Amino acid sequence: MKVLITDDDLTTRLTLGLYLKKWGYQVLEAASGPEAWECLNRPDAPSLAIVDWVMPGLSGPQLCRQIKASASVIKPYIILLTARGERRDIVQGLDSGADDFMTKPYHPDELRARVSVGARVIGLQGQLFDMNRQLEDRVRERTREVERLLRHKEELLQHLSHDLKTPLTPLVSLLPELLRQEADPDRRQMLELMLDGAHNIRSMITRVLELCQAGSAPLRLNPGGEDLRALANSALEAFRHAIPVGSRDLCNEVPAGLRVRADVASIRQALKHLFDNAVKFTPDRGRIVVRAETGPDAVTVAVQDDGLGLEPHELPLIFEPFHKVDPSRHHLGAPGLGLSIVKTIVEQHGGRAWATSPGLRCGAVFYFTLPSESS
Amino acid sequence: MKNVMVVDDDPGVLNTIDLVLRRHGYTVVKAPNGHLCLEHLRQGFRGVVLMDIMMPGLTGWETIREIIAANLLDNILVCMLTAKASPGTEGEGLEEFVFDYLPKPFDNVELMSMLDNAIECLEP
């Protein structure tokens, strides 16, 4: 182990050096504070330093403070060796960052013992450092493994959903043919139930695939951004065809002139899921409004309905995949993926998604943010 | 004539489309792979070719390349059946030879309206 002796007195350096070499240490010498500082910052620096108090350039305590304030991960163990022996000197020396304190004249046995304490501490520090590094390596390795498994799971889900579409084709195609020619009411009902089931499976598969794909393709962003009102309008228009005419009031109250940085196709998809969600939980002749307001660096978009609403404890969970608020909503045919798709898309844009509701049967508002084009 | 050739390696899909279309007055030719599709074209098939993209052996896109190479495009229009959400990049450059795409599983109404559009283009 390397030990640095820092003292402006040559005799002290030589005597100390002789002892330390006798005890098996490799000795380096510095005659001033700056010289010691330079030596301690070398790549292969000594790990223990015996430092005098009064030195030209930089005093012992000043050197200690400089070392403790430095950015290096492993710092040397410092023994202040000085003729000052008052209690306040000891306190000041240790407070400045020294690890130990000895007064001159010293007894060689005591010095040997204190240096070996230092060596022990340095050894433990090294072990701790190694263990830490090993742990960090392990965390990195495990994280990579978890990421690999997650990717694998996603690919599996994607392949499975994809492969299910082909065998579903005969059901979706042939059941309507049978139904078309069936006159018996009971048999018609049976066929209708089967067809409903097939359609539900189809909608689930489509959404699982959408969720797998959301956020994986790079965003296509146009310079100058997109007009949010026009974007909301195109999403609303595309959606209007999917619901019975006049059943719900769909309103676009996004102010004109708001520009957002957005991938048109994915934000339209996100809005479609929010409308779909709102329609599902809003009774006939309900009202669904999309509005937006601009903040310091983002635009907040809100889709408000006057439907079923949510209880406060449900609000943080609804964006989780496959989460359904309560079993009674199963009949509404929601596979519980729409809002997760919204969240994934919005987060890819650097925004966030959340919901508020005054309570059950009081409606709900679903929000998301998008970076505004000026930001 | 409402002539349709269905090219799909999945017997379930192949027979389903055959059944549905025959019941609605179409004449259907079945081809379980790309090679048989080419064979029917050489024998003079005229009409709409409804082709699956993902097939073992010749894929849908490879079959289209063969059709172009053999100069058999004259009396047909090609519609693609796809299980993927988007047609993918494999067929880049071949889009102009495809009349329309239909994602699986499809509604019969969608299928027949696409086929009728194609047939109308083919023989106005």
Question: Can you tag this structure with a few keywords?
Answer:
heterodimer; A: 375 residues; alpha/beta; Rossmann fold; Heat Shock Protein 90; 3 domains; 12 strands; 16% strand; B: 124 residues; 4 helices
Question: How would you describe the overall organization of this protein?
Answer:
The complex is a heterodimer of chains A (375) and B (124). Chain A is elongated. Chain A has three domains: 105 residues, Rossmann fold; 66 residues; 146 residues, Heat Shock Protein 90, CATH 3.30.565.10. Chain A starts with a strand and ends with a strand. Chain A is of the alpha/beta class. Chain A contains nine helices and twelve strands. In chain B, strand 1, helix 1 and strand 2 form a beta-alpha-beta unit. In chain B, strands 2-1-3-4-5 form a five-stranded parallel beta sheet. Chain B has a single domain, classed as Response regulator (Rossmann fold). Chain B is an alpha/beta fold. In chain B, helix 2 packs parallel to helix 3. At the A-B interface, helix 5 and helix 6 of A face helix 1 of B.
